[in-house]
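FAQ

Q: What does a record look like?
A: Structure on top, sequence underneath. For example:
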């Protein structure tokens, strides 16, 4: 069997949830599990986080997958429903929805559901992605409050564009506008993603919506998860499957872009962009072999990468190779590949099996 795998540490997941509770003991936590729980496996993560108060996913199909694995907790559709045809599913499966447009309010008014649906009205306070315009918010709220298909009271939410940049005035401005628009209305409030949880305690509201920090990854640039008291959840591992001694001047990999400056041993690791390892990881990106950081050299190919093992080879065929995880922060690999850790973990492909210590099943990654 190919030795490439993602190890999912469910104890770390639970520890990260506890860390969030420490940071915000009075708040409820909606654990964000979209995109297959950021590549970690939605069912495994949902079961590990049975102490979360609710889950958030992007859309209906992701929520139905969770319900099908037996998850009974509230689930919020962060992008809302895409058409009136989805409403019967929301009713039947007890799903909560974001409402961000007048068209959605109209669909709910026409729907005449037997069991009212829990709704979060999302205001665009400045990110200019999803959310109703500030000047429409109160009128839409009143219409939802009078709608028989909507559970009362209607809740409020917004999303911060720059919560990870403490010096950027945008978050304070978004918060000011949000407070102004929602003051005096009933309903619960949700504003904070992971960066908001960590950096904006005054904006915590009733419900936090942490995603990336649950997986032990830092949302703040220049800091890693462990530096923020978080434990990395995913370790991506493979093995050295070949090793050769090569002379100075030999060219390595596709395009021969890397020329050996000195004689060395080149090891081949069974992981590549077909597994989600970033193709743009440059020469010098570290991997861990026998506790030592060694640089990848040459281009990343679909199934393999090449590593400079040195004259006295630091590893042999069969040795374990860690691509990222507890001792090699995924944030560091992402930065070197000019991307963010979110993208790396989400990009792990189906052919990488995942393993968890406390669950007997393996539902892939
Ligand atoms: C509306 C909303 N809330 C919360 C989150 C979680 O964000 P993070 O993973 O940065 O905590 C996301 C993710 O993008 C989101 O879109």
């Amino acid at each position: 069997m190919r030795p490439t795998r993602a190890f999912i540490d469910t104890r770390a997941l639970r520890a990260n949830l506890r860390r969030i509770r420490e940071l915000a003991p009075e708040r409820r936590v909606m654990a964000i599990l979209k995109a297959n729980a950021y590549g970690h496996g939605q069912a495994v993560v949902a079961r590990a986080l049975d102490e979360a108060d609710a889950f958030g996913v992007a859309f209906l199909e992701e929520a139905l997958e969770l319900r099908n694995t037996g998850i009974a907790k509230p689930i919020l559709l962060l992008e809302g429903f895409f058409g009136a045809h989805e409403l019967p599913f929301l009713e039947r499966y007890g799903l909560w929805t974001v409402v961000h447009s007048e068209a959605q309010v109209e669909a709910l008014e026409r729907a005449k559901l037997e069991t009212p649906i829990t709704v979060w009205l999302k205001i665009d306070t400045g990110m200019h992605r999803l959310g109703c315009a500030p000047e429409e918010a109160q009128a839409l709220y009143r219409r939802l409050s009078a709608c028989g298909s909507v559970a009362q009271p209607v809740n409020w939410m917004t999303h911060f564009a720059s919560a990870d940049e403490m010096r950027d005035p945008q978050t304070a401005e978004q918060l000011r506008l949000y407070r102004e628009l929602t003051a005096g209305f009933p309903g619960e409030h949700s504003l904070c993603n992971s960066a908001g949880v960590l950096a904006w305690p005054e904006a915590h509201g009733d419900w936090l919506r942490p995603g990336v920090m649950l997986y032990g990854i830092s949302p703040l640039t220049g800091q890693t998860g462990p530096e923020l008291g978080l434990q990395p959840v995913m370790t991506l591992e493979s093995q050295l499957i070949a090793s050769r001694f090569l002379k100075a001047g030999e060219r390595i990999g596709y395009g021969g872009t890397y020329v050996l400056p000195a004689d060395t041993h080149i090891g081949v690791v069974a992981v590549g962009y077909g597994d989600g390892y970033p193709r743009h990881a440059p020469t010098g990106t570290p991997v861990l072999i026998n506790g030592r950081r060694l640089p990848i050299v040459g281009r990343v190919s679909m199934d393999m990468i090449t590593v400079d093992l040195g004259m006295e080879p630091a590893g042999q065929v069969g040795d374990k190779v860690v691509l990222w995880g507890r001792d090699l922060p995924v944030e560091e690999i992402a930065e070197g590949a000019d991307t963010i850790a979110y993208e790396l973990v989400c990009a792990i492909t189906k052919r990488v099996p995942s393993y968890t210590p406390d669950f007997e099943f393996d539902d892939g990654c």
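Q: Is there anything notable about this one?
A: The first strand starts at residue 5 and ends at 8.
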